[in-house]
Amino acid sequence: MESRFFTDILKHPLHYVLLVLLIGIATGCAKETKTREGTGRTRLNNFRDWAVYRGDKGGTQYSELDQINRENVHKLVKVWEYQYEGDAEPPGIYSNPIVIDGLLYFNTPRMKTVALNAETGEEVWVFDPAQYNDGKVIRSRSRGLVYWEDENGNNKRIFNAVRDRIYAIDAKTGELIKPFGQDGGFFIDLRKNLPIPEEEVDVEITTQGVVYKHYLIIPGRQPEGNSGTPGDIRAYNALTGEFEWIFNTIPLPGQYGYDTWEWEEDMIYGAANPWGGLSVDEERGWVFAATGSAAGEFIYGGSRKGANLFANCVLALDATTGERKWHYQLIHHDIWDYDLPPAPMLVTITTDKGKRDVVVQMGKLPFMFVLDRDTGEPVFPVVEVPVPRFPGVEGEEPYPTQPWPLKPPPLVRIAMYESDITDITPESRASVLEQFKKHRTGPVYTPASIEGTITTPGHHGSVEWPGGAYDPKSNIVYVSVNEEPTVHTLVPIPPDKAAELSPIQKGAKIYDSNCAQCHGLNKAGNPPYPSLRNVRRSDQEIRDLLRQGFGGMPAFTNLTNEDVDNIVAYLRNRHPELESYASDSASMNNSVPTWSGGGVKKWKTTTPQYVNKVHHFVDHMGFPAIKPPWGQLIAVDIDHGEILWRVPLGEYPKLVEMGIRNTGTEVFGGPVVTAGGVIFVAGTADEKFRAFSTEDGSVLWEYQLPAGGYTIPSVYMINGRQYVVMPAGGSGKIGTKPGKSIIAFALPEENDSTNQ
After folding, report:
1. I need a labelling partner for 78 at 20 to 30 A (CA). Which of 5, 563, 709, 733 fits?
2. Residue 688's beta-bridge partner residues?
3. Residue that terminates a domain, selected from 590, 616, 642
4. For residue range 727-745, what is the model confidence (pLDDT) as tens digits?
């Protein structure tokens, strides 16, 4: 009964419209909030120079340059291309390049920081962190870099976060700055200054932090399993590297939010991490964060019942102390992996009472939330809607309601029913229909199940980490979205066995807790992740992969040496009958069943545990099971909460060969909008870089990149010429070929004119 109202809304769009009309008056009665021009405009925080990740500290991905515009963008040409040294390799180039004083900075997959002449593309210097880490090469995702100088314009430096270290690099020479960090060392050690022992910390910085005055404020990416690390936000002194403050996203006893959890004494709790970055309002002196799911467990939360603050929240903190100003939770007790990847976007809208500073938040969930920047209160009405609950998953208690904004409308479809099955070919429909009938389905916020639940949106969103772009002239947000359902299946893990397990059995148990969600049960594979039944790497190579990670695979630093050896034993085993670690009824002796595990730190619970199997719902050719479009570019009027237009974004080359066009593809690239009325965006499976019109989404220009551009372009001007730079690093989540290029585009020389 409790989910009928929710389901009726989805099946009868008129009900949704009526609900909007009934309480729409709340929008008109919204209180007036005086604008303070939000993010401020300074030498390094403006709409012209791209000195900050995503363009400015408010994360708007906007450029006021208009030398390149709707009328001439079709004339764009490549003016230079830089390729980093060595072979192209995963995970690709995630960096959104920043530009300061004529130098362009980005990171390679090996976490080398490269400085180029932003006008010519010539290499100026390269910083290699391996030479300061005993030669150890770290391959990782790095979405950008941070620049800082003091109030007098001195001590200019680039901060490069390499897994759990932050190095300070001289911005002009590329030399390591030291001393810097805790205890007079030469890096900030991110294993320190957390509420757990540093030997238990597993943290990696994939999106660099932000600076406010002399504070370097750091987000983080932490694992979301049962041995997780808290996703706490920390600040360090940008000059010395000394620790300044911490905000605990997993509340400690006595802190606000602690009572929103049902804690278990022997479980480990972590994540709730703002892994997609941070935003800063320099006028207010506040830093904004958007957090992901809580842990332990994944696609399930039996041992962490409750709302789980501060997971899946927008947070406003004092940038000098870490004091919480306000929070707003977009999802209670996340059991869908509905993180909020992009950092909050700080913009100013126009209401019938004047200007109003707001925060725009998107994520993997299908909605866009618009919140008052001073209070965190929704600008448009939000209702708490009862959500579906399935029996049969022992231990889980889904939160009874979830926030549902009535404006803007959902960015993507919020359910998949039989009528939504793909029809690109008869064979595709037949293959999907056969799978569809085996699983449960339902609207957004339908929980995972033993049978497998078709989840829409899937775990790649709606909106991924590159976020959207905001045009302050029109108050329109442009955003690229994904529509690809996933199937969430919970496979019960047997309780602990009384007898001692063999190394193979121990390895199987560790694998199920840490690896099966990607590589499938019994090492069988889970496309696009490969089977591990016939691993060709040596034992030492497997150990190195587990310790260091590779491409999109994280490092499992929480595992002990014995754990790693046991996984190797399990992967090498060719006799499945030796792998079962299930307990038998005789060995239980009528005792209460328990589940346990962990690496450096052990966990134990009487709450049933599950292997969390998540796979893309696709047809026999590997294309999404839902009807196209699968990727779109959308324009949203945030003054009125309305979607103005949407167009397909990208095509799959294989389908184009079959005559199937305009399907859109998964998108892992963010748009940039300019005052010239142009939206630049890449990130599609066809590896193209496109320019769209802000008026109607029509394509004005496109360029075939040498590899996919799975990041955000940068826009800047030097010596009167406007440049648009697009990294082409390929690989990434879409899995196209890797690349190694940074490519700059501009108008031909004869079209140069100074931007006014």
Report:
1. 733
2. 704
3. 616
4. 999 998 898 999 999 999 9
